[in-house]
Write a structure and sequence with these properties.
Elements: H1 13-21, H2 30-64, H3 71-105, H4 123-130, H5 133-162, H6 172-213, H7 217-228, H8 231-252, E1 258-261, E2 266-271, E3 281-287, H9 289-300, E4 305-307, H10 309-318, H11 330-344
Parallel strand pairs: 1-4
Antiparallel strand pairs: 1-2, 2-3
Helix pairs in contact: 2-3, 2-6, 5-6
Length: 346
Amino acid sequence: MAKDPSKTEKATPRRRQKAREEGQVLKSQDVPVAVSLIVISLSLIFYLPFTFRKLKEYFYYVFSQFTSPNISMFILTSSYVFLVLVVPIFILLFLTGILANVMQFGFLLTFKPLVPKLSNLNPVSGIRRIFSIKTAFETVKGSLKLLVAFVVGYYAVKYVLSGFNSLSFIPFYKELEFLGKNSILIFFTFGLLSVPIAGIDYLFRRWEYEENLKMSKQEIKEERKQQEGHPLIKSAIRRRQREIAMKRMMAEVPKADVVITNPTHYAVALKYERGKMHAPKVIAKGMDSVALKIREVAIENGVPVEENPELARTLYESCEIGDYIPEELYRAVARILAKIYRRKGL
């Protein structure tokens, strides 16, 4: 449990995932026991007639072996009867146990809980566990189980013994049927009485689980830092990304047909391929120092630079890189492109 008084905050999703990967899950051992008892009891109600029929056939076969015994056939038949009667019950118990655990914490396969922890060898920790709330709860729960077992066992034995007087007047397989039915009744009674115990145990395990996962505010801050990254690292990554984007954008400026400027505050580079584009496209844009850099690159590569402050600002604010210019600017841009084409003799 979270004995550290600073651990007052609920666990984050990352903390829960990490605990799950280490095998720390919400699990009550009493839930599979209660479910198994009830499932086995209900299944035996339908399985019992088949069992008695098989046992009856088996006993007839055993008695017939007294006259002409066949050891190999006897072993084979006995093994077959054992497998038919016992194995299905074990398989059902196995599947029920798995399902009861999956219902509690889902599918999980990890071997980390099997790794020994040196902290468990600490005698101080051992003494603390002896006088912990968990130990007190386990003591009370164990006493309650013993009480239930004693009461159910007493009345079950009393009921079974009361019917023994009539067993001497019925066939042997009928005696087995009597014992089988009463065994099912005992199992079912134990199962029903185990349900509230399992429910209480599950609620305690859930409280204990949440207490173990609690975090301090500092731990939450550290986790957030790890997930989001250190501010300096994030800043360096963003700066590097901006530099790459800037280089990529500047590499597109020489391909432009015209650069429209403010002249110093804004610069927008446009490209238009007749027959391939339905309108001019913005391939680079920038403000202040970036605008000056776009202008310099354009001049160095012979790209026409046209000063039109209003159009440059409108293009900058209404378009992103890769966008086609809006329809309301077609005419203004077309006049500039036409002038450039005439100048080039196109």
